[in-house]
Each structure stands twice: as structure tokens, then as C-alpha cells.
Write a structure and sequence with these properties.
Number of strands of chain B: 14
Number of strands of chain A: 5
Distance between the termini of chain B: 56 Å
Low-confidence stretches of chain B: none
Strand order of the largest sheet of chain B: 4-5-10-6-7
Structural class of chain B: alpha+beta
Radius of gyration of chain A: 16 Å
Strand content of chain A: 15-25%
CATH topology of the largest domain in chain B: Uridine Diphospho-n-acetylenolpyruvylglucosamine Reductase, domain 3
Radius of gyration of chain B: 19 Å
Strand content of chain B: 15-25%
CATH architecture of the largest domain in chain A: Roll
Helix content of chain B: 25-40%
Oligomer: heterodimer
Mean pLDDT of chain B: 97
Number of domains of chain A: 2
CATH class of the largest domain in chain A: Alpha Beta
Largest sheet of chain B: 5 strands, antiparallel
Shape of chain B: globular
Order of helices and strands of chain A: EEHEEEHHHH
Shape of chain A: globular
Strand order of the largest sheet of chain A: 2-1-5-3-4
CATH superfamily of the largest domain in chain A: Beta-grasp domain
CATH architecture of the largest domain in chain B: 2-Layer Sandwich
Structural class of chain A: alpha+beta
Helix content of chain A: 25-40%
CATH class of the largest domain in chain B: Alpha Beta
Chain lengths: ~160, ~300
């Protein structure tokens, strides 16, 4: 089995790591960089709990060999806030009490962030469809959809200042 | 089964260019090619690739993510073109709307940001979403190997069994080509699933070319009703030259439902597949005909 030296930029910080060919990006983020926000849920692209951003696009870190991510610029849920100031999506989730058990929330927030980068003015149907790969087993979807609508409105109004 | 890790041990190969990729594929028996990885990684984790020795990652190769029109009007899709990019490609939306519809209905946005159409084809699932409309649009694959060079395979002839295609272990899928549709072409893709991100219970694609009130060309394909993506070769050909009527649609839909021999599986039953085929086939034929500018009495 081969080992490979890779570089990753995670939440703006560069890392150099030696990884096994079968090591998963999710496990590198969680167990070696201690970024435990991204969750292991299903491991087979069904739940979205491990979602990260790569160049602004949402991807599933449980299905990416770490070696394959060599050179990538990655944002995890830990990288969304600016210091102590939560991102608009994070703040809206709190304001709407959109968090029940919390397990799916990092994936939801990251996917919601990607959504707003792609479409700053989404309607409810668009959001529901975009979140179709993120499962919440507490079934708290209504408040999450509302959170993303609120975050979108807030970002648009602050962008217009 | 532990999907938290990859249990298998293998070497990772990341060729820097296409020539090197062909060399690796030819020189390493037990190699598995990875484009987006959304199928390969799931298979790796679930033990479906017991003989894997080398994972060949195409990701480092520049220039394989193209989606563009050639001078002859045909449209070409590269092995690394992501599904989410193709579903928004203006020319695909305009000329191959049934393919765009299938792409948009696939899995989740994250999977479509990672996965490729080439991977969806090479994975050779009988229910591959992008394959059904691509068969209808006469997609032609170019396969390349170090030893035998290029060969082209019509997409409907590519599949043999679940996960098995005519592609040899030393071959790579070099290009997906969609010919320019004829004038008055209409198409429709329908997917039946419980909820959107699900793998389909059944899919159908229909493409019709209209000449006045008659059918000049017809291609019908279905997913999840046979051991491979199924092209209704004879049934499609039988419609060519006929005048389109509501009755012909009804008879054709019934004939398709009668012809198929689906199975029970995790997603639905053979009985459901039989019953629903007649309904969706009629819907798809009608919709494709309208889309081609045709009218029905």
C-alpha cells in the first residue's frame, strides 16, 4: 500500500500530511486536524453530514480519498465564522431554533452556504430541492429552510448597504 | 460492513497526463479507474471491489472536464466533466433537455459536484440516470487503450450486466459524443422514485423526430427494468414511418410493458414496474411528441 505526502489548505490554514492511499479525507479532517464538525453519518453519500466546501462547491468528505484532495482549498463548518462572528447561515439557524440533536447541522449549514453562493435569492422549493441530500432524522426541516431564507434576505440587505 | 473507513489496501496512482493514464491502465491488472469517485468509493467501502490492487485517479489530468460543441455540430463530454456542470450547460439544456432533466434529478448536489457522466456510464448500473436519455440521443462512446488504440461503441451496446460493460480493464472512456439532434426532435425523461435523491424505481427516456404528423425517428430506453440499461431496439424501429396517434401511443406503451421482465428488488416490485411502465411510457411518448411540435387529436 502506498503512502503519499499531500498539502491541504483547510479554513485558510496550510497543512502538510503523510497519508495512506486508503485514508479518507473526512477522517483526516476529524482525527488528524481535530476538525470534528464534519460528521460521519452513513459513509455512502446518503446523508450529507460530512459535507465540506471545495472551491465553493459542496462535496462529501467521506467519499474522497485524502490523497486525491492533494492541493485542495477546503472549508469546513469550522471555517464559516469570522472569529466570533457567526456566518449569516449559522446565525439564522440559531435564531430559528433550527437545531434539535445537532448531528446534521454542520452538513446543513455548509450545504446552505453553498446554496447561497450559487443562488442569493432562493425560494422555498429551491432550498428544499438543494437540501435533498442532507438528512435530518429529527425532521426539523421547516426551521432549516426558514433559516436559509432568512440568511438570504439578510445577506441581500447587507450587500445593498 | 464499516463505511467509516476503507478496509481494502491498494496503491494509488495519479497519472499526470492521458498517455500516462493509458500506460497505467495497460500495465496494472486489478486497476480500478476513478473519476469523481462517488460510485467507486461506495463500492470500495462495501466490499464490492475485492480484487482491487490499484486505484487510478484521473483527477490530476488537465483538460478532461470539457463539455463543448465540435465544428460538425456534435456535442462532446469529457471524462471528468462534473454532473452539476453538465446540468447547467446551456447547449445541453437547449438541445438535450431530457438529459438535462435526468442530470438534475440525480442524487444530491454534493454527489453531482463530485460525480461525472463518464463515471455514471462506466459504473454500468442498470438504473444509471444519465444513460437512458443519452441512449435516446444516440450517444457514442470513444474507448481508448494503449494496445488497441481507439474504438467507438454506441451507448446502447456498451452494457452487458449489472456493473459489467464491454470495456476492457486496459481501456479508458475517452469521450462521450452526442450528435446534433435533427430538426423537430422532441424528448422526455421520467424518473419514478420515492423521494428525489433516491435511486430510481424505474426510468424511461423517449426521443421522437417528427415529420408532419408522422414519426421519422424514435428511440425508447428504460432503466431498472432489466439487467442493463435497456434500449427498445425493435419497438423503437417499429414506430418509424407511422402516423402518430393516441391509439399508437396506447398500443406501444402496452407492448413495452408486456415485453419487459423486471425483478423485485430493494426499491420496488416487478409487478409495480410492469404496471407503471405502461403509464410512464404513454406519458413519455405523448410529452416527447408535444416537445417535437406534434399534436394529437
Amino acid at each position: 500500500m502506498s503512502r503519499h505526502e499531500i498539502t491541504l489548505k483547510v479554513n485558510g490554514k496550510p497543512h502538510r500530511l503523510l497519508v495512506e492511499s486508503n485514508e479518507l479525507l473526512l477522517n483526516v479532517l476529524r482525527e488528524r486536524l481535530y476538525l470534528t464538525g464534519s460528521k460521519y453519518g452513513c459513509g455512502i453519500a446518503e446523508c450529507g453530514a460530512c459535507t465540506i466546501l471545495v472551491n465553493g462547491k459542496s462535496m462529501l468528505s467521506c467519499l474522497i480519498p485524502a490523497v486525491s484532495a492533494d492541493g485542495w482549498d477546503i472549508t469546513t463548518v469550522e471555517g464559516l465564522a469570522e472569529g466570533d462572528k457567526l456566518s449569516p447561515v449559522q446565525q439564522a439557524f440559531i435564531d430559528n431554533n433550527a437545531i434539535q440533536c445537532g448531528f446534521c447541522i454542520p452538513g446543513m449549514v455548509v450545504t446552505g452556504t453553498a446554496l447561497l453562493m450559487e443562488n442569493p435569492d432562493p425560494d422555498e422549493e429551491y432550498i428544499k430541492d438543494y437540501l435533498r441530500g442532507n438528512y435530518c432524522r429529527c425532521t426539523g426541516y421547516v426551521a432549516m429552510v426558514q433559516s436559509i431564507l432568512d440568511a438570504a434576505a439578510k445577506m441581500r440587505s447587507s450587500g445593498n448597504d | 460492513m464499516n463505511t467509516r473507513i476503507i478496509d481494502a489496501e491498494y496503491d494509488y496512482l495519479a497519472p499526470q497526463d492521458w498517455a500516462e493514464a493509458l500506460d497505467f491502465a495497460a500495465g496494472h491488472p486489478g486497476v480500478k479507474v476513478m473519476a469523481g469517485g462517488t460510485d467507486v468509493l461506495v463500492k470500495l467501502k462495501t466490499g464490492a471491489l475485492p480484487d482491487l490492487q490499484y486505484l487510478l485517479d484521473l483527477k490530476r489530468i488537465d483538460g478532461l472536464d470539457y463539455a463543448r460543441e465540435a465544428t460538425d455540430g456534435s456535442f462532446h463530454i469529457g471524462p471528468l466533466a462534473k454532473l452539476s456542470r453538465l446540468e447547467q450547460e446551456p447547449l445541453i439544456l437547449a438541445r438535450y433537455p431530457a438529459l438535462a432533466a435526468a442530470l438534475q434529478l440525480m442524487a444530491s448536489i454534493s454527489v453531482r459536484n463530485m460525480g461525472t457522466m463518464a463515471g455514471n456510464i462506466c459504473n454500468a448500473s442498470p438504473v444509471a440516470d444519465s444513460v437512458i436519455p443519452a441512449i435516446c440521443y444516440n450517444a457514442l462512446l470513444t474507448l481508448e487503450s494503449r494496445g488497441r488504440g481507439f474504438r467507438t461503441v454506441p451507448l446502447e451496446d456498451f452494457f452487458l450486466a449489472p456493473g459489467v460493460s464491454v470495456m476492457e480493464s486496459d481501456e479508458l472512456l475517452a469521450d462521450i459524443m452526442l450528435p446534433e439532434p435533427a430538426e423537430n426532435t422532441g424528448a422526455c425523461f421520467i424518473k419514478k422514485s420515492r423521494v428525489r435523491p433516491d435511486i430510481a424505481k424505474l426510468t424511461i427516456g423517449v426521443k421522437l423526430v417528427r415529420e408532419g404528423g408522422s414519426i421519422r425517428d424514435c428511440r425508447i430506453a428504460m432503466g431498472a427494468i432489466a439487467a442493463r440499461p435497456y434500449f427498445f431496439r425493435e419497438q423503437s424501429a417499429a414506430l418509424i414511418g407511422k402516423e402518430m396517434t393516441g391509439r399508437l401511443i396506447g398500443e406501444t406503451a402496452a407492448a413495452l410493458a408486456d415485453h419487459i421482465r423486471p425483478i423485485d428488488d430493494n426499491r420496488t416490485t416487478a409487478e409495480y414496474r410492469k404496471l407503471i411502465t405502461e403509464v410512464v411510457a404513454a406519458d413519455a411518448l405523448r410529452e416527447a411528441w408535444h416537445h417535437a411540435g406534434g399534436e394529437l387529436e
